[in-house]
Each structure stands twice: as C-alpha cells, then as structure tokens.
Amino acid sequence: MDERKFSSDDIVNVACELLVALHKKRPRVHCITNAAAQVMTANLLLAAGALPSLTYSADEISDFTKSADALLINLGTLDAERRAAIPLAIEVARDQETPWILDPVFVNASAPRLFWANQLFASRPAIVRCNRDEFKALSGQTCELTAIERFAAFWGTTVAVTGPEDMIIGDGQCIHIRNGHPWMNQTTAMGCAGTALSAALCAVGASPFVAASAALLILGITGERAADRSSGPGSFVAAFIDTIASLTPDDIIASARISA
Amino acid sequence: MDERKFSSDDIVNVACELLVALHKKRPRVHCITNAAAQVMTANLLLAAGALPSLTYSADEISDFTKSADALLINLGTLDAERRAAIPLAIEVARDQETPWILDPVFVNASAPRLFWANQLFASRPAIVRCNRDEFKALSGQTCELTAIERFAAFWGTTVAVTGPEDMIIGDGQCIHIRNGHPWMNQTTAMGCAGTALSAALCAVGASPFVAASAALLILGITGERAADRSSGPGSFVAAFIDTIASLTPDDIIASARISA
Amino acid sequence: MDERKFSSDDIVNVACELLVALHKKRPRVHCITNAAAQVMTANLLLAAGALPSLTYSADEISDFTKSADALLINLGTLDAERRAAIPLAIEVARDQETPWILDPVFVNASAPRLFWANQLFASRPAIVRCNRDEFKALSGQTCELTAIERFAAFWGTTVAVTGPEDMIIGDGQCIHIRNGHPWMNQTTAMGCAGTALSAALCAVGASPFVAASAALLILGITGERAADRSSGPGSFVAAFIDTIASLTPDDIIASARISA
User: Any idea what the CATH number is for the domain that residue C41 is in?
Assistant: First the structure.
C-alpha cells in the first residue's frame, strides 16, 4: 500500500519521469495476450522503450516469466494453450514479486471466461484494466465510483476503467483522465496495448496506481496527437506508434487533462 | 429464397442503405478466422461500423456465438482448437437462425482441409466466398458460370467467387463486379476481411445474395479509392481502413462498375 | 557445397537477379512462424513477389509443405500445435530436397526451446538466421567470427547473424553487410520477415549462402529507404512494404554497403 496521496500534478510529473525511465532501463514485459493484440502490443512496447516477449506455451512460460520485469495477462482468445500457461506464469510472477496485470477482455460475453477471470483475483493482480461492461460482469455491480472503490479495496488491486473518461482507483485514491480520441475504440487492441504500457511502468518501479494512471495519461495524449496526423482509423495505428516513440515530457505537461 | 430479382442499380442502392445501417445498428460479427487475418478483419469491421469478436476456444464459442448477429468461419490456419470450435459455433448459429458465412481458404492446397470444408456444406452456409482455385477444389469442376450456378443451387447457398471480376451467384441470379485494385491481392487477409463484411451485412438484415454483392461492391470501391491515396501495398492497408471508415453512399453510386 | 567464392560485387549482382526472379517465378514459401510475425511475413513475401502460406496444423502441414518451394521454421510462440507440425514439415522438406530455413527466436530465453532448436540441426537447415544472443545460446560460445565459422562448418549450414552489421557465413566464406536502420529493431517481426525472404531466394534457386546474403542486403537497403519516407517506427512498417514492392536493381547497386 502506497501511503502517499497523489495530486493530478504529481501524476503528470511522474508520467514524464516514467517515460524517460522506460527508454533508459528497457524492461522486458512478458505478454500472454490475445491473437489480435500481439503485434500492436509488441510494437507499442518497443516504441515506448520496453521489450516485449509473447510466448504462451505452458512448457516455456516459466522460463520467459522468470527473466521478465512485468507480466501481462490478457484474456482475449483464451484457448487451451493460454489457459494452461496463465496459472504457471502467475505463479512464477508471485514467487518473484514480479508485478502482474490483468486485462479481462470480453468477460461480459462468456460465462466460462468470467468464471476463469474471477479465480485469478485470488492471485492478486497489481492492476485490472477493463471497460465498463467488463467491470459490471466482474463485480456483479453497476460501474459507479463507490462500487469500483469497494472492488479495488476488497481485492487489494488498482482498477482502471477506461472509456471516454478513464477512472483509475486504488490505494484509496481516484484519478480521472479525459485525454484520448474516439479512434482508439475503433482500432482493435488499443486497450490491450494500453494495459501492456501499465505493466511496463510497473516494471520500472512505479506503484500499480501510479503506473496505471501514468500509462492511461500517456496513451490518451498519444491518441490525441496521433489523430492530428491521421486521415482515419487505419493511418491512426501507425501514427499512434510514431507519436509515442517521439513523445516528450513537455508534450505530456502541455496536453494532460487530469483530475484527482 | 428471396423471390425478388435484383438489377445492378438495386444492388448499388441497397449497398448504400446497408452501409448506413451498419453504422447505426453496430451488429457484432463473431469471426473464427485465421491467424493472419484477425487484426485486419477486426479493424475492417470496426471501420465499417460493426463490432468484431475473435475467440476460437471450444469452451467459450457457444457463449460468443449466442450473442452474435452473424458468424464467419474462415478455414485458414485450421488448428485443433479451431477444428473443435467450428462445429459448435455453427450448431449455435443454426439453432438461432444466425447467418453463417464460409471462407474456405486454401482448400485447394490440403486434402484434409477440403474434406473438412465439404462436410460443412451440410450445415448450409448462407454465403461461400472463395477464389477460382478454391471453387475448383470444392466443386471438382471448372470455375464457370454454369458450374457455380449448379453448386449454389444444389447447396442452397450464395457463392461469391472473387478475382479481377467478382461473380456473386445465388437465388437464381448473378451479379458481376469489376471494381477493385491489384494491391488487394498483394495484401494478406484482404479477401478474408471482405468475407467478414458480407457477414456484417447479413447481420443487418440483407439476404445472403444481396449481402455478398453489396459487400464486394463496397470493398472493390474502397480498394480503388484507397489505392489513389497510397504509395504501395504497405500504405494501402491503412488507406483501405481510412477509406471504408469515411465511404459515403455518393462514393458508391459514383464508382460502381456492376452488371446483372 | 558451392565451390565458387563470391565477391561483394557478385552478391550485389546476384541480389539484383534474384529480386527480378522472385517477381517472375512467384515461389510459394510455407512459413511456420510466430503469432506476431505472420502478417508482416505474409505481406513482405507478397510485396517481394513470393506467395506465403502460414498453416501450422499437424494434420495439414505435409500437404502444404509438399507443394511449397521453400520452408521457413520460426520458433517464436512455440505452442503444442507448432511443436507437432514442425518435425512433419521438415521431414517432407528433406524428402523432397526443398530448402528449409531456421529462425531460432529467443532460444536464449528458454531452456526447453534451446533443447528443441538444437535437435533440429540434425535435420540440416539450409540457413540459420539469428541475433548475437541467440547464436551464443545455440553454440555455447561467444559470437565471434571463428566460432560462427566452426558452427557453420560443423552443421554444414549457412549462419546469418544480424545486428548493426550483418555477418553471413557459409561455404567457407563470409560476407559483411552494413545496410539497415535502427527502426528495423524497433518493429516486431522485421527479423522474422527477413528470414522469410532468405527462404524465398532459396526457392528461386540461390544457394543458401547467396540467398541469405542477398536477402539481408535487400532488407537493409529497404530499411534505409523506408526510413527516409517515415515519421517513426509505426509508419516505417508500411513504408518498408511499399519500398520493397518497388525496389529496383539500380537501388540495390546504388546503396549496397557490403564487403567480403
């Protein structure tokens, strides 16, 4: 539990420091992620300064997780191979106190997936990143501030609910971010890639609450700037990667729309 | 069986209406598709106004199919997980009268895949979208108009054979489309993504014959316009998505090269 | 064993001829490759004039390999399905004297993968393409010229070690290539796609040593020219495909930085 309370200015300043730290430390994030998110996740991490690895084979997942600095578990395209690998990866992460992050994609669309996701909470993800419908399915409640606070406190995790306004809740605090662009929802895997950035920021030492807040701030600003250089949701994908690769602390300070 | 006969002008007008309907109704298309087509298929559907889901796990496929508005079955990268999931998905689709569409990728290159594909016809796909070599393998005949008509009538399906000129045959009718651009064949998954658009148009109420004709018309026009904004087959992919996201009924009317 | 010794000018000239031959003969390269590399590999092969196929199912891999002109085995995302298919594909390739190429991705990160990779050498890959860390893991030695020469000679293979300077070693010869751009390492699957191009050049009749040298020369030059047209590592991907699709022999001659 991080005792310090963060103002919105604190988050902006820490986001700037973390972006620089990523390029300097180049942490490796192991990502068990869905089939439609693998390329975007890998390219986003590379552009932001981190190194991705993507293997999801049960035989090899322990070795890959042991040498990783953070672990991302994304439940999209949850096939038998991934279902076998995920618990092994989480076990290694917990043994080594490597932070692991959960992205419970589409738990609202499949009862077996919801059951599976709920079991993972006992292994204490550092961050859960989801949209409103996924939160409702996970918690069995409406997606309101107090419900999210209770859920985060009960499981000792940070919950980041993304949408037109992102809410990041953990450590008894709440941050709201209003950066972003509608094309981020019109492009597959943009949310998944964002979760990977949260994992990368944990890997360079940020607390889960700060990592999730800083990651979603960086991504929202990247999305706005990328949209200015794009002709539609297709060219937006490449512009998003170009933008994050050259994003500066000054860009973050100039564009942040964040409140505590 | 749709009793009405469609003129080429009818198809153009209906394509315009369906494009608007997609953005309004936002149907979800569940896609069991190949590993190289997942990202392109998801992004094309999103840009055209539909919502993709891509899970191919046997445990979850029933839940995902139940809540979907159309189902796409693409036989590329046909691994054990997909082979287990496909019959389950089709069974749910048939029970619920959800239209399902078949893309028998590379059946001409593998005897086990051809055998597998042939068995699926008993479950009555609404549309089969294939190239000339795939049709020859499926039908055991040459790819000529009368052979395609016989095949379509025998299986009670619409057959769309794509190439420099697309032929759509079903309900005792035939439409020819001459829109398109050679880069559509120089880019992986463009045909697969096109099949997904046919599924999306079925999902907003078009008959299979009309959905396949309108989808291939929209895609061909998108390809021509995207090529005008591209420097080669690489930038063409992003331009294709940008173009379909902003395509208007006027664009379709102005560019259609179609005959009945 | 190719008896002829190649000068750097020879490699440049042969690379020009092979690029033309690819577009003329359009060989099919079957690629068992990792989940993050499939789209890029397919699009690069298509843009360079070859045809990709990507199936990795054990049931079908023999049929797909039988009709292919070269075989690529990439060990990224080495799941159970791929582990079952790879030996079957290699067996067909050997029976038919189809060249097969190995890309031992991340063997340095996983003991089971290293064990698996080492067993494949007995089946005599025509080319092994790896980075320095992967070579160290494979050979148990430092990545120096004499160690690579010994390894190549012992296994009767061509070894291509890529990095800021590429080294291609085989047939008692060595070629150094200094073309390329840092964004090639900031984009997932660029190395994997390069290995696929080596396979395509083997498929049009080049010896493994010449194919690997010409492929890495073509890719390095493509990377430099693509970077000139890009705004960052995101737009670089599309520009890379655009560039290789329009690359001419004159471009290769003008830009080659190669020494024997």
Answer: 3.40.1190.20
